[in-house]
Write a structure and sequence with these properties.
- The protein has 85 residues and is an alpha+beta fold.
- 29% of the residues lie in helices and 33% in strands.
- It has a single domain, classed as YaeB-like fold (2-Layer Sandwich), CATH 3.30.2310.
- The chain has 2 helices and 5 strands; from the N terminus they run βααββββ.
- It has a 5-stranded mixed β-sheet with strand order 1-5-4-3-2.
- It is globular.
């Protein structure tokens, strides 16, 4: 089984620090599951730009998958009302 590595962009890292501890733990749990399956059934392909969206409660994780390098790049994460702006 191939494991992907997770990389966070600068904006994703900043957004993660702003979340509550409970939400941070929830996000890290979801990111661990992405290592095994980068496109789980709950993820949706974004329209208008490359990448995927994953829902975690009211939070959204926006990411791209680089299959050649086995990297999942987390572009941004945050509350659903703010993330797409």
């Amino acid at each position: 089984m191939t494991l992907f590595s997770i990389e966070l962009s600068t904006s994703a890292r900043k957004s993660l620090k702003k979340l509550s501890k409970r939400d941070q733990i929830l996000v890290f749990t979801v990111l661990e599951t992405l290592k095994n399956n980068p496109t789980p059934p709950k993820s949706l392909k974004l329209r208008g730009r490359d990448g995927y969206r994953l829902r975690v409660g009211d939070l959204r994780i926006i990411y791209t998958v680089q299959r050649g390098r086995l990297i999942i790049l987390i572009l941004d994460l945050g509350h659903r009302r703010d993330i797409y702006r």
